[in-house]
Amino acid sequence: MQIAVGDILVMKKNHPCGENRFLVLRIGMDFKLRCLGCGREIMVPRSKAEKSVRRIEQNGED
Fold first, then answer.
1. pLDDT of residue 38 exceeding 80
2. Are 6 and 25 in contact (CB under 8 A)?
3. Which of 2, 8, 22, 27 is most solvent-facing, going by the fewest CB within 10 Å?
4. 31: burial class by Cβ within 10 Å (0-12, 13-18, 19+)?
5. Cβ-count burial of 22 within 10 angstroms (0-12 exposed, 13-18 middle, 19+ buried)?
6. 3-class secondary structure, 10
7. What would the pLDDT profile of 47-58 be if each residue is shown by its tens digit?
8. What residues pair up with 53 in beta bridges, in sequence order?
9. Contact present, 57 and 10 (Cβ < 8 Å)
10. Among 45, 52, 51, which residue's Cα sits nearest to residue 15?
11. Which phi and psi (to 5°) does residue 9 adopt?
């Protein structure tokens, strides 16, 4: 799975605020994601994050 910093991940489940889109801030063994609804940052293990991704929206800011 090709995920890069700056991509937006559309997840299968919503964040408690109701948003299901997250901005990738850091990748490694864990992903650091920022909710695009409320701005909260979360750390998710790579295996769990890759299973719960529905779609990847590539960011054009490169």
1. yes
2. no
3. 2
4. buried
5. buried
6. strand
7. 999 999 999 998
8. 11
9. yes
10. 52
11. -100, 125
Measured CA distances, 40 to 1, 7, 8, 62 (Å): 24, 16, 15, 24
Q: Is the pLDDT of residue 17 over 50?
A: yes
- The amino acid at residue 22 is F
Token pair listed for 42: 């979360």
Phi-psi sector, 47: left (phi>0), alpha (psi -120 to 50), beta: alpha
For residues 39-54, b (16+ Cβ closer than 10 Å) or e, as one string? Answer: eeeeebeeeebeeebe
**Predicted model pTM:** 0.87
